[in-house]
Specification:
With about 220 residues, this protein is mainly beta. The protein is built from three helices and 16 strands. This is SH3 domain-containing protein.
Length: about 220
């Protein structure tokens, strides 16, 4: 069990009786906190760890039955938009389940280079091909992941240890909680300098510079 988490700011906290809020990893819209992690796959293509999971079985079924995606006409394509979805490139998404294989190329025949292992992990989409999206984590590592393993729910990962979550986007505001480095929170509103995140049952404002999973100039309502 990881010791990473959200700690409420209170007299009990300051007195030494810290209350650590432990949240299980959950999927999609109920994502709260998790420690970010990227682990090498155990082996190359054919490794049981790469092909035996429920997620991989679902991907195989989709690849066998789903029609090929329809791409925008060539004259309508823009370099800053995905060739399949016409959504912005790059853009942020999150890992839908508790595991996702990142492959060297956009098909099940390519070897698995990495396995993402935390639901809600923020990832950046950098390219599209058919049902596949090339993604990278905060360190730039990753590969091609099937779109069925990704979610449009926005999350962000805390970069700095004991980051303050404030009641308002103001450095003088009350500290409502503190987050350890590696905590993943659901992303809320963002202004030019601050973003609101929810993690471990706590909600507060964090400086953008302390988060990964949001662009510096991004504004969210």
């Amino acid at each position: 069990m990881s010791d990473k988490g959200i700690r409420p700011d209170s007299e009990a906290y300051r007195g030494g009786h810290w209350k650590t809020i432990i949240a299980g990893v959950v999927a999609a819209a109920l994502m709260t906190l998790a420690s970010a992690e990227l682990r090498p796959a155990h082996a190359q293509t054919g490794d049981p760890a790469a092909k035996g999971s429920a997620a991989e079985t679902a991907v195989e079924a989709i690849e066998q039955t789903a029609p090929a995606p329809i791409s925008p006409p060539a004259e309508q394509r823009r370099p800053d938009r995905g060739s399949v979805t016409n959504l912005p490139i790059p853009r942020y998404v999150s890992l839908k389940g508790s595991e996702g294989n990142a492959r060297r190329g956009p098909s099940l025949t390519h070897r698995v280079d990495w396995v993402f292992r935390h639901a809600g992990m923020p990832l950046r989409v950098t390219a599209e091909f058919g049902h596949w999206r090339r993604v990278e984590d905060r360190d730039g590592a990753g590969g091609w992941v099937h779109y069925a393993l990704l979610s449009g729910v926005r999350t962000a990962i805390v970069l700095d240890d004991m980051t303050d979550l404030l009641a308002r986007p103001d450095p003088q505001a009350q500290v409502v909680a503190r987050a350890e480095a590696g905590v993943i929170g659901r992303l809320g509103a963002c202004n030019p300098d601050w973003c609101q995140i929810t993690a471990g049952g706590e909600k507060g404002w964090v400086r953008k510079t302390s988060l990964w999973g949001v662009d510096p100039d991004e504004i969210r309502e």
